[in-house]
Design goal:
Strand content: under 5%
Number of strands: 3
Radius of gyration: 30 Å
Number of helices: 14
Helix content: 55-70%
Structural class: mainly alpha
Largest sheet: 3 strands, antiparallel
């Protein structure tokens, strides 16, 4: 109750303010909030969260960084489905043109069908999955002409990047690595393209690289000297001999373009090795 001044008949202003302050103090104590708002924001930040009501000027002063995106992705059903199906597609676990059944993938991942459907729609944009003519999704279909085109485009991205790097006299320095030569070569070629400074070119190179990953197992079965080939190209990249490196990359991709029919038959399960075949 607010005490009123009998002579005036209105609420006493000093008592009203006092009562309001008392109520605010009681609410703060009931919630166990510190009286100092900066201390409150500090406690929230110490727990790894961003205070929603914190003034914009204070947000850049957070003492503890927010949780990494990777942590959030691991818990998000969409990212879980996306990464799992993408990995299986890149490993060639889905035969080209075969249906990817949403309900089966959801059961395997212990998710609802919604994040699985969203992940498949996303992978359509990456070229790893395609929509079936009458609904649903298929593993991306391939043929020899498409494989040749993808290797040719990958080569174009690399030669363009080398030309840009040569124009600005920028050299990609080797990075020490204990990985296998083929993996080191993949990483080195990626650095060459990213080093050109053209984001669109780098994104296109990464995209076509993902589309060629399902052929990796077939390459291992058909091309038997890949490790020596990778070591030779890495040595040329280290020596900064641009003409020789460019020529080696052309030969590397031309070899795979010529083998495109065999690669397609292999991933489709239709290839039969003749006796004594060598890569």
């Amino acid at each position: 109750m607010v005490r009123r001044d009998a002579s005036v008949g209105n609420a006493h202003p000093f008592v009203s303010v006092h009562n309001r302050r008392s109520s605010a103090t009681k609410r703060r104590e009931n919630r166990r909030l510190p009286a100092d708002i900066s201390t409150f924001y500090g406690e929230i930040r110490d727990q790894g969260m961003q205070p929603v009501g914190e003034p914009a000027g204070r947000r850049h002063q957070s003492r503890v960084p927010l949780p990494e995106t990777a942590v959030t992705r691991k818990r998000d059903p969409f990212f879980l489905a996306l990464e799992s199906i993408r990995h299986l597609s890149e490993q060639g676990n889905y035969a080209p043109g075969t249906p990817i059944v949403i309900i089966e993938e959801a059961r395997r991942l212990r998710l609802s069908t919604t994040p699985v459907r969203e992940a498949l729609a996303w992978l359509c944009g990456e070229g790893l999955v395609e929509r079936a003519p009458f609904g649903g999704y298929l593993a991306s279909r391939i043929d020899a002409a498409l494989v040749r085109d993808r290797f040719a485009f990958r080569l174009h991205c690399l030669t363009t990047s080398l030309n840009l790097a040569e124009a600005v006299q920028d050299r990609d320095e080797p990075v020490p690595s204990s990985a296998a030569p083929e993996k080191r070569l993949t990483e080195r070629l990626g650095r060459i393209v990213r080093g050109a400074g053209n984001q669109v070119l780098a994104e296109a190179f990464e995209r076509v690289g993902r589309q060629l990953l399902p052929l990796a197992q077939a390459e291992r079965r058909i091309l038997h000297d890949r490790e020596a080939e990778a070591v030779s190209i890495l040595q040329l990249a280290d020596s900064a001999s641009m003409p020789a490196l460019r020529q080696a990359l052309v030969a590397y991709h031309q070899r795979r373009m010529d083998a495109a029919p065999l690669l397609v038959l292999d991933v489709s399960g239709e290839r039969r090795d003749p006796p004594g075949e060598a890569g």
